[in-house]
Amino acid sequence: MMTATAFKMGDKVRSTKRPEWGVGSIMKIEAITFQGKSDQSIYVRFAAVGVKTLLASAADLIAADGSGDDVLTAIHRPTTLTEVEAKQEGGWLGAIDRRKPEEIMTGLPPAATDPFLSLRRRLENTLALYRFDPASGKLIDWAIAQSGVEDPMTRFNRNQLEQFWQRWKFELDAHLTRLLGEARRDPASLSGAMQKAPPAAQRAVQKLQGLVK
Known about the structure:
The chain is of the alpha+beta class and about 210 residues long. The chain is built from 9 helices and 5 strands.
């Protein structure tokens, strides 16, 4: 884990709490005082979700190792609504990019599905997605991560987001079931990935393992 004083502009980093964000590049660092202590405000442009502002002492960032996995994650990152809109001449429903908003909102990030990533990495990134739970008030957090839009309620109403969530969750469970099938031939990958899995992911694994033949 990088310390606050170790951060510098241009560093390539990952968020251990949000692996689906992909590799990020530090764009700006500001010295601040937080709770009476010196800290830093870190501006990071992530591959999947754009710029995020993080507190250095609580950012949970690690240095990206420059491996093939990092490169692939960046190249095959998901297209968010923000990215779609940015490259369209006629707005986010323009004719250049025909991906529908519902496809973006219900798709899983390549960090979880890319077959070129190791099974353990795909499992870790997939299990990390189970931290989202609309029942605990995290529907908007999920929608932000999924869309790349700071305020998804400017694009969708809550009913639409709930419908997108249900479809996304179905795809997530189905994908995890497939990974568990692969893990039957490589149980070490699953046991390693489970060490950092949130409680909801551990419950999902227990439930879905009964479906794996």
